[in-house]
Amino acid sequence: MTVQELPGAAAYRPTPPPAWKPLTDPAPLLPDAEPYRVLGTDAAADADPALLLRLYTELVRGRRYNAQATALTKQGRLAVYPSSTGQEACEIAAALVLEEQDWLFPSYRDTLAAVARGLDPVEALTLLRGDRHTGYDPREHRIAPLCTPLATQLPHAVGLAHAARLKGDDVVALAMVGDGGTSEGDFHEALNFAAVWRAPVVFFVQNNGFAISVPLAKQTAAPSLAHKAIGYGMPGRLVDGNDAAAVHQVLGEAVSRARRGEGPTLVEAVTYRMEAHTNADDATRYRVDSEVEAWRAHDPIRLMERELTGRGLLDEGGIVAAKEAADVMAAGLRERMNADPVLDPMSLFTHVYAEQTEQLREQAARLRVELDAEHDQHDDDPEERR
Amino acid sequence: MTTAAAVPGTQSGKAKPATMAQALGRALRDSMAEDPSVHVLGEDVGTLGGVFRITDGLAKEFGDDRCTDTPLAEAGILGAAVGMAMYGLRPVVEMQFDAFAYPAFEQLISHVAKMRNRTRGAMPLPITVRVPYGGGIGGVEHHSDSSEAYYMATPGLHVVTPATVDDAYGLLRASIASDDPVIFLEPKRLYWSKAAWSPEAPAPVEPIGRAVVRRSGRSATLITYGPSLPVCLEAAEAAVAEGWDLEVVDLRSLVPFDDETVAASVRRTGRAVVVHESSGFGGPGGEIAARVTERCFHHLEAPVLRVAGFDIPYPAPMLERHHLPGVDRVLDAVARLQWEADS
Ligand SMILES: Cc1ncc(C[n+]2csc(CCOP(=O)(O)OP(=O)(O)O)c2C)c(N)n1
């Protein structure tokens, strides 16, 4: 029975707004059955060699960054680090696909995307070191603060993209979220808003198999996370998240689509988290080594290396050069992170309100007295003075 | 049920009776006309003009892009407002009723209240969240909550609540102009309270954070705000017969809190009662009483008393008059201020 045949159905038909076009054929919105791939397929022949080489260098740097940051947690220089090892292709493509004026809305795992977009590696880590909630000025790099509560950054991306379009600016927002985050209400509200407003947003799900310990099968009953798009009236795309060229192409198409005013896209990248959730997590409690090993064969750097060497675009010298450049970056990061951050306790009160309230002024004065007393005590203490 | 008594307003030559709802609508209109970055968004705010008609005519005058009917999703509305503010707009969000703001609490507490602090001042969020609140209108469940304590407990938010037609206009203009997020609590049972008010020459915009003495007196201070102000003014008049000369302080802003005006009043009178609709336990009155005690201990002739709603989920409409603090309960508390006589 069609809608028209239902008794009284006509009364329920909404009055379409002027620009409204009924979705007669949802097929173009549906994702492919298999994740889209470029590397190792015929599609690779069309890929720009310069782009592939750029992606490769960034992947190597990214892997090294993850390793260095994880090492810093072991040395007590970093409180916590959620590694994106194995997911570098997603991180790098997300950063490289955006124009300068575009905005990135990362989750807590996406430090690497922020760094690849040009953020100072140390500034990107201050949240995780614990000295500041956000190390950087979001407007300077057009990177929203790394977001800890799951999926809450997604409606922000929609609002910002919507505001930019209202102002007539050419700005696209790319918002990143994990597979677990797609179950949150904010994910659904953001997708719905974006589709209704035709906001220039790209939602980018990194499906890395787990939300801490919970596998995807316990997170959703959908055929894929990309399929969720169709219910909101936007296209869903499925891509191999370890194939940097494929992720770059699919995200690039989604960004162009948004830029042309055709509205949002949901992209799901199928990838795998090679490390534990964070350095504080024990992944052996919820997954087996054989699964991790199987994904190692599909490593994003290996995939790219194979493609580039196979086509004679990269040789042993190039591989070594990329590795050395990454080591230099890591050494710099290590050195700078080994310096203790200097923090002013009085700054606790500086950015609560535009104008400090009387209550905060009183509390600041109390802290000032405490700090002065501490200082005097140290002056009196010969141990301290030495 | 306590009905809204006449509330004071400006007595100027051009002034005609206006409702609080009209003054609020006018404040939105004037803010939008003055500043193109002001955008109104929420459920039913466009064509319908909001369920209380506060936004009536805005979509027509400024277009759908400036006064937007959103999908029905409070977290989405406030979350989108965060992004809009990040890009330099000044969103004014309407939450349809007090209890329907709760789905947006995650956005409010985790982002709206913290973004300035988190980004060390780089990214202030000038968002105004208008919340019709409180009871006394015979609403069914979820339409009468007094949620101010939740907002007050969240650093980074301003919490403002007008009780007069003048303040409705002035404080809303100031809230929208503020570079900080403001929870603007509208006492919905005062929406139709009238006062002489001149839309052509509205009262000057009051800064946020200053309380005002609505009635001077010598024997005790009633500290109140929003929907309970008319109750307190009525009680003060009734108390004259009992020989009490009560001072009434209207807080207008719960955050920031005007300790100075409140403490000065209590030092003069030596006695104080805090009056509000919201539940007493863990409610605003506890905070206010503690602040008054800390500042005025040696001036106090009696403990600071609270007259508040019961510690119960907001009752069904046919019982709400038993829950809401009315004139008699205020007078009863005033009588209990004769502490020396009892002890
Ligand atoms: C609203 C919220 N609930 C719970 C958490 C705690 N938490 C942090 S990460 C995480 C799992 C997230 O998994 P996923 O979205 O798949 O992202 P991934 O960590 O795999 O990148 C949880 C439950 C949180 N950060 N936010």
UniProtKB/TrEMBL annotation, chain A:
A biological process term (GO) from this entry: branched-chain amino acid catabolic process
Pfam families: E1_dh (PF00676)
GO molecular function per UniProt: magnesium ion binding; oxidoreductase activity, acting on the aldehyde or oxo group of donors, disulfide as acceptor
Signal peptide: none
Region listing for Disordered, in residue ranges: 1-27, 367-386
Family matches, as InterPro entries: Alpha-ketoacid_DH_E1_comp (IPR050771), DH_E1 (IPR001017), PdhA/BkdA (IPR017596), THDP-binding (IPR029061)
Domain Dehydrogenase E1 component: 66-316
Keyword Chaperone: no
Domain of life according to the entry: Bacteria
Cofactor: thiamine diphosphate
UniProt keyword terms in alphabetical order: Oxidoreductase, Pyruvate, Thiamine pyrophosphate
Key word S-adenosyl-L-methionine present: no
Protein name per the record: Pyruvate dehydrogenase (Acetyl-transferring) E1 component subunit alpha
From TrEMBL, chain B:
GO function term, MF aspect, one: branched-chain 2-oxo acid dehydrogenase activity
Keywords: Oxidoreductase
Gene Ontology process terms (BP): branched-chain amino acid catabolic process; response to nutrient
Region entry Disordered, spans: 1-20
Polar residues composition-biased segments: 1-13
EC number assigned by the record: 1.2.4.4
Keyword Oxidoreductase tagged: yes
Cofactor: thiamine diphosphate
Cross-referenced InterPro entries: THDP-binding, Transketo_C/PFOR_II, Transketolase-like_Pyr-bd, Transketolase_C
Segments forming domain Transketolase-like pyrimidine-binding: 18-193
One Pfam family of this chain: Transketolase_C
PANTHER family in the cross-refs: 2-OXOISOVALERATE DEHYDROGENASE SUBUNIT BETA, MITOCHONDRIAL (PTHR42980:SF1), 2-OXOISOVALERATE DEHYDROGENASE SUBUNIT BETA-RELATED (PTHR42980)
Designated name of the protein: 3-methyl-2-oxobutanoate dehydrogenase (2-methylpropanoyl-transferring)
